[in-house]
Write a structure and sequence with these properties.
The structure holds two protein chains of two kinds.
Chain A: E1 5-7, E2 10-13, E3 19-24, E4 31-38, E5 42-50, E6 53-57, E7 64-68, E8 74-78, E9 87-94, E10 103-104, E11 108-112
Parallel strand pairs in A: 2-11
Antiparallel strand pairs in A: 1-3, 3-8, 4-5, 4-9, 5-6, 7-8, 9-10, 9-11
Chain B: E1 4-5, E2 10-14, E3 19-25, E4 32-38, E5 45-51, E6 56-59, E7 62-67, E8 72-77, E9 86-93, E10 101-103, E11 107-112
Parallel strand pairs in B: 2-11
Antiparallel strand pairs in B: 1-3, 3-8, 4-5, 4-9, 6-7, 7-8, 9-10, 9-11
Classes of the chains: A mainly beta, B mainly beta.
Chain lengths: 113, 113
């Protein structure tokens, strides 16, 4: 069974731009969660989608948004990028919503200059 | 404010010896705890978990101990192997409708041959 895939793996953007990251979950998994990882803050939960609906949301500004498609693939969008948005963005999938056993992708390394 | 704390950023152990990774938490509402392992350039991988109603869970070389009165849990790896060298994250789950994982900052374990 293929694992969670994330594209792109690396991205460099300029302040003020916007970015879209993509995540394909494990086949059969309907829940996708997004996390931001930075050295000082660790993994911070962004949001979770299940069956195309946002089920849970972390404490991030509205510039961070996401969506999920009918095939469970998910995208995350960050608008008006700031330097502090530089981080590793991880996507995790699980079979059901609010599941603690999550399977992570390798992440997308975003650098904002 | 970090609700889940891993106070040792790094740990170095000799192959064959015991590795003990520690985690403290502040929120007594957490009802489930998990350990994840992360290799460079990969996403975290679920390792072992424990419910708050238990004080020990064992899986092969890995054992997690939970001391609720002290709000402390630990992961024991016996015997340690060089392939165990990775970053270990402790995570805790809040109950209720908006269940989400709260993560520690991680401990980097180096097992020396």
């Amino acid at each position: 069974k293929a694992g969670v895939t994330q594209t792109p793996r690396y991205l460099i953007k300029t302040r003020g731009q916007q970015v879209t990251l993509s995540c394909s979950p494990i086949s059969g998994h309907r829940s996708v969660s997004w996390y931001q990882q930075t050295p000082g803050q660790g993994l911070q939960f962004l949001f979770e989608y299940f069956s195309e609906t946002q089920r849970n949301k972390g404490n991030f500004p509205g510039r961070f948004s996401g969506r999920q498609f009918s095939n469970s693939r998910s995208e995350m969008n960050v608008s008006t990028l700031e330097l502090g948005d530089s981080a590793l963005y991880l996507c995790a999938s699980s079979q059901r919503s609010h599941s603690y056993e999550q399977y992570f992708g390798p992440g997308t390394r975003l650098t904002v200059t | 404010d970090q609700q889940v704390k891993q106070n040792s950023p790094s740990l170095s152990v000799q192959e064959g010896r015991i590795s003990i990774l520690n985690c403290d938490y502040t929120n007594s509402m957490f009802d489930y705890f998990l350990w994840y392992k992360k290799y460079p350039a990969e996403g975290p991988t679920f390792l072992i978990s424990i419910s708050s109603i238990k004080d020990k869970n064992e899986d092969g070389r890995f054992t997690v101990f939970l001391n609720k009165s002290a709000k402390h849990l630990s992961l024991h790896i016996v015997p340690s192997q060089p392939g165990d060298s990775a970053v270990y994250f402790c995570a805790a789950l809040l109950p209720g409708n908006n269940r989400k994982l709260i993560w520690g900052l991680g401990t980097s374990l180096a097992v020396n041959p």
